[in-house]
Amino acid sequence: MKNIIIEGKHITDIETFYKEINRVFMQNEDWDISQSLDAFNDLLYGGFGEIKGNEPLQLIWKNFEENKKQLGFNATKTFYEGKLQAPETYNIDFVREKIKELESGKGRTYFEIILEIISDHSNINLTAL
């Protein structure tokens, strides 16, 4: 089983999460994935970067609890509020609903969405350190 280590000390926000993901998964590619949850999900399916198809993978995430905070409520709200600045690109009603859900305690944080994406890939075993 291949081991891949996410060095959480490199992650302080959503932007640096993707920098770390690209550093770890895309080191032998001449391009990076974009700052997109869909792109992250596609990466985990394999076929490019460090994952070759549906191979078994041990994903070790260091500094997990700190990253949970850093990619939590505040980062998620800022992420959604940024989308409100581009109404020509995003469904503003959808984004407002996501903010409302988040503020009411019913919405998922960016970190929780990342974990859900990882859990959807049965070949990936996550170890939080």
TrEMBL record:
It comes from the Bacteria. Residues 1-72 form the Barstar (barnase inhibitor) domain. It holds the Pfam family Barstar. SUPFAM superfamilies: Barstar-related. InterPro entries: Barstar (IPR000468), Barstar-like_sf (IPR035905). Belongs to the barstar family. This is Ribonuclease inhibitor.
